[in-house]
Design brief:
The chain is of the alpha/beta class and 460 residues long. It has 3 domains: 93 residues, Rossmann fold, CATH 3.40.50.720; 203 residues, UDP-N-acetylmuramoyl-L-alanine:D-glutamate ligase, CATH 3.40.1190; 138 residues, Alpha-Beta Complex (Protein-Tyrosine Phosphatase, Chain A), CATH 3.90.190. The protein has 15 helices and 21 strands. The longest helix is centred in the middle third of the chain and has 15 residues. The protein is globular. 48% of the residues are buried.
Length: 460
């Protein structure tokens, strides 16, 4: 229903199906602050839902047609299907339906300077870094981030200015419903192959996203990524590049790491020294994320001094190489990595940190990703010792029986690897507790529920 707009329902009742999602909950929070009545349903309870309820939203656990009573508009996520009872009832009652990305795009339209952070990897961290810089620069932005950021008290912040910043996800090309004045493209890689045919299809989606930026707007992209570099040459808006290896507007040099794997580097803009930056998050990939954030901030007129101080204080978003705690001298870390490129970055980060043995617990995320990127997972994981792989996290998919974690373990070990398969989380906890010793590190890897293993190890 293309003529439906959120502005038509001012102070109305908006119902969210799947309100517990990280983006949906943020949109619900924004509408609450704008005076809308908000209700929503989700299959599982969560702290996010508790916060929404406390802020005035009417929350239902489970889906039922009665939940949409009185709704003027129903918003749904891509994971909600046509057989959902609330979708069926909305259609029967002729209540307008709107998907999440359309709502987000319409909210962006109400700001003069909307910013979309796109890329296969690093969106949440870069959005968080830039958000904190903008806050410290007193721009008072409205922020929607795909993770829990302590500096804003969660995943959303409602500001009172012309600035809006959000992640721009390429899945099902949802970011093509956005209205960015400034866009960041961090990288373009194979992913979401349950929707995209191939890398060319993925590239075309990012190309279309970049074309949404007006000629007076800004596109910031990584010149070290060959596909992003190519895309930048095909746009007619203001282009700003960043990189480490290839000549770019913003460049990092003299990169060094401390004992926690935190990088420091010299930044330059068009050859001009912008000072030395010290990050409080580990890994070389975060040098790229920080450069992207600095480039975007500078284009907004923010001094590099403000960016430098803000980045020094940024300690990460939850589930992004997050140290969960220590028990018996064993450090427990959780990381959201679920793509071979992201896992490689995690492994590289660990190499820069002094440690004893490392116990890796990997939960593959979606059957499609595991199957389509199978060989890349093997290449990434075949050199990892003490690797435990548990069952694939289905997320939005159904198990067709075509792929299993056991297949991954078998292929890794055939290629000289050292993986074992354990299905039960409690069995994994017992295994780690009987093998790990003081000075060791336990890291849970994946975008699903694998983080619970680390939490239980700490609790017990």
């Amino acid at each position: 229903m293309s003529n439906v707009h959120i502005n038509n329902f001012e102070n109305g009742h908006i119902h969210f199906i799947g309100i517990g999602g990280i983006s949906m909950s943020g949109l619900a929070e924004i509408l609450l602050t704008k005076g809308y009545t908000v209700s929503g349903s989700d299959m599982q309870d969560s702290p996010i839902l508790h916060k929404l309820s406390k802020d005035g939203a009417h929350i239902y656990i489970g889906h039922d047609k009665s939940h949409i009573a009185g709704a003027d508009l129903v918003v749904y996520t891509a994971a909600v299907h046509d057989d959902n009872p609330e979708i069926i009832e909305a259609k029967l009652q002729n209540i307008p339906l709107m998907d999440r990305a359309t709502l987000l795009g319409q909210i962006m339209q109400s700001f003069k300077f909307p910013i979309g952070v796109a890329g296969t990897h690093g969106k949440t961290t870069t959005t968080s870094m830039l958000s904190i810089i903008m806050q410290d620069a007193k721009l008072d932005p409205t922020i929607l981030v795909g993770g829990e950021l302590d500096a804003i008290g969660g995943n959303v912040r409602t500001g009172n200015s012309n600035y809006f910043i959000t992640e721009a996800c390429e899945y099902v090309e949802s970011f093509l419903k956005f209205y960015p004045y400034m866009g960041l493209i961090l990288n373009i890689d194979q992913d979401h192959l349950d929707y995209f045919r191939d890398l060319d299809h993925i590239y075309s989606a990012f190309f279309k996203f970049a074309k949404l930026i007006p000629s007076s707007g800004y596109l910031i992209g990584c010149n070290d990524d060959p596909r992003v570099s190519k895309l930048l040459t095909e746009m007619d808006c203001n282009i700003i590049t960043y990189g480490i290896d290839n000549a770019s507007n913003w460049m990092a040099s003299n990169i060094q790491y401390d004992k926690q794997g935190h990088p420091s580097f010299n930044a330059s803009y068009n050859g001009q020294d912008m000072g030395r930056f010290n990050l409080n998050v580990p890994g070389s990939h975060n040098v790229y994320n920080a450069l992207a954030a600095c480039a975007a901030a500078y284009a907004m007129g923010i001094s590099p001094d403000i960016s430098r101080e803000a980045l020094k204080l940024y300690t990460g978003t939850h589930r992004r190489f997050e140290t969960k705690g220590e028990v018996g001298g064993i450090t427990v870390i959780d990381d959201y990595a679920h793509h071979p490129t992201e896992i490689s970055a995690t492994l590289s980060t660990i190499e820069k940190i002094p440690h004893g043995d490392v116990w890796y617990i990997f939960q593959p995320h979606t059957y499609t990703r595991t199957k389509k990127l199978f060989d890349r997972f093997i290449d990434t994981l075949k050199g990892v010792y003490n690797l435990i792989i548990t069952d694939i996290y289905a997320a939005r998919e159904q198990d067709t029986g075509e792929i299993h974690s056991k297949d991954l373990v078998e292929a890794i070990n055939k290629n000289g690897g050292h993986a074992i398969y354990i299905s039960s989380f409690s069995d994994i906890e017992d295994y780690v507790k009987s093998h790990a010793k003081a000075g060791d590190m336990v890291i849970t890897i994946g975008a699903g529920s694998v983080y619970k293993i680390g939490e239980e190890i700490l609790n017990k």
